[in-house]
Write a structure and sequence with these properties.
The protein is α+β, with helices and mostly antiparallel strands. It has helices at residues 8-15, 19-28, 46-49, 52-60, 65-75, 81-124, 150-154, 157-165, 181-185, 227-240; strands at 6-7, 34-35, 42-44, 130-134, 137-146, 170-178, 190-198, 207-210, 213-221, 244-245, 249-255, 267-275, 280-286, 292-298.
Length: 300
């Protein structure tokens, strides 16, 4: 066995731990130094040096210094059951932290993606109508009554409380389904569905199937007070290009009151389900109980 002694400077150089940290670890009893009798200087043995890799590995696993000291003390006992319990508790704690980190990372990434989309729309003044396929996804929904207060609809207290009551978190753009485009244009009261993606999966009964259809899409730039102009643009385009459009529409808010108070930077995508006459399509229609069902249209 090696009996070589190391000064604190030598110990710091070899272990890649600062002298300040070594003194702190010494005070905690994690890496205890010895003392020269004559001058009381700290020195470390080779055994002390071999304490460094386990210490660093425990730190890598997320143990704090107090937990590491407890683990070192437990590890000196004859039974491993207490040490195993410590590791099981740490795994549970790390899983909880992983869930929180996933929530935060997903939320930030999704918001960043919306900012990128809005910048591209604004920089290129993208306000033309186009037809595209809307990929299907299940979104959390809540039925509400819209009373023309668009800001309160987008920054929605009732929907926020609904999400929290489910123990979930939302991410991505707010989407509102307006059951009547005509009422939307005339700022009339109507039934809407609040839609948004959640961080964690929802039971099927809490979700609404969004997408899986062809839609006429157009970005609206600017205040929501002038959004009726974009609706009329879509309607004119559909008529000119032989498309039949649904009575309802989705508004997907990319930048809005959540992001900025400058209405010139507002970007909203209007999505209207469309089909061509003569095509067999599946449509969503509302029953009296407001549940959405599918039917087939055969237009001659």
């Amino acid at each position: 066995m090696k009996t070589q002694g190391y000064t604190i400077s030598q110990m710091s150089d070899i272990s890649k731990i600062s002298k300040k940290a070594l003194r702190f670890y010494d005070d905690l009893g994690l890496i205890s130094s010895k003392r020269h009798g004559a001058n009381n200087y700290r020195y470390y043995t080779h055994e002390d040096l071999l304490s460094v890799p386990p210490l660093k590995y425990y730190k890598q696993m997320g143990f704090n210094l107090g937990e590491i000291r407890a683990a070192f003390e437990v590890g000196s006992n004859t039974s491993l059951s207490a040490l195993r319990k410590m590791f099981m508790e740490k795994i549970q704690l790390l899983q909880d932290e992983e869930k929180i980190l996933h929530l935060r990372l997903t939320s930030v990434r999704d918001w960043l993606e919306l900012l990128h989309e809005a910048e591209m729309v604004l920089e290129n003044n993208l306000q033309s109508v186009s037809v595209k396929y809307i990929a299907p996804e299940q979104l959390l929904f809540q039925k509400q009554t819209f009373t023309s207060d668009i800001k309160s609809a987008i920054i929605n207290i009732d929907f926020t409380n609904h999400v929290e009551s489910l123990g979930n978190n939302i991410t991505g753009p707010v989407i509102i389904y307006f059951s009547s485009t005509s009422d939307r244009l005339n700022s009339s009261e109507q039934q809407i569905q609040m839609l948004q993606r959640t961080i964690f999966p929802c039971p099927e009964e809490q979700t609404h199937a969004f997408g899986g259809f062809l839609a006429a899409s157009c970005y609206h730039i600017g205040s929501h007070e002038t959004i009726n102009q974009t609706y009329k643009k879509i309607q004119r385009w559909c008529s000119a290009n032989n498309y039949v459009y649904d009575a309802g529409a989705y508004e997907r808010y990319i930048t809005d009151f959540w992001t900025t108070n400058n209405e010139e930077l507002f970007v909203t995508e209007i999505i209207v389900r469309v089909s061509r006459p003569g095509m067999v399509v599946h449509r969503q229609i509302a029953r009296d109980d407001d549940d959405m069902v599918l039917c087939r249209d055969d237009d001659d």
